[in-house]
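Review form for a predicted model. The reviewer records the input and the model, then writes brief findings.
Reviewer: anonymous (R2)
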Amino acid sequence: MTEQPSATDEKPEAPAPRPLRVDAQRNRDKLVEVAAQAFAADGVDASLEEIAKRAGVGIGTLYRHFPTREHLVEVVYRREVEGLCHAAEELARDHPADAALELWMQRFVDYIATKRGLATSLRLLLTTNSTLFSDTSGRVSGAMRGLVEAAAASGKIRADVDASDVMHALGGIYSAPNTPDWRERSGRLVKLLMDGLRFGARG
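Model under review:
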């Protein structure tokens, strides 16, 4: 009689993916960096062939790392969120609290530019990849909250500032018309917002 596996038998774990070679990892990182710039400038329909060319690799290399455009979009989006959160930590460490907040909000404009370029694919991913947004949801607003609270506690901005109000104000930049001077105007709006946050501060 053949022995049947018991319900308590453990299934063998799937082998961990092999790490990329140094040159392959370098190519992948460069592709993601170039793709982020291309999507911010030209939208999600930016040419994959041009992205590969600017990254110094062939289109076959791009598809080996990113089998579909949506896969590349997801990786770029995760990279942007990670970079924005990491920037908050670095800026808080290296600058006065109000300067850290202003510099981070300027960095947020770059993030918005990329997100605007990815908008169509992000809407598609929202319906097909629940983990993308569950993994990243709240991380950006949490990073801003830490910077706002630190600046308020130091007396560099108004003590009655609510971080969610600041995020709401910045959200208006996302929906602004995509004119050639959009980025320049967005930078000026950040400065105006910071002037308002600093007005009446005790520091």
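Findings: The chain has two domains: 21-67, 76-198.
Further findings: Residues 5-12 have pLDDT under 50 and may be disordered.
Recommendation: see findings above.
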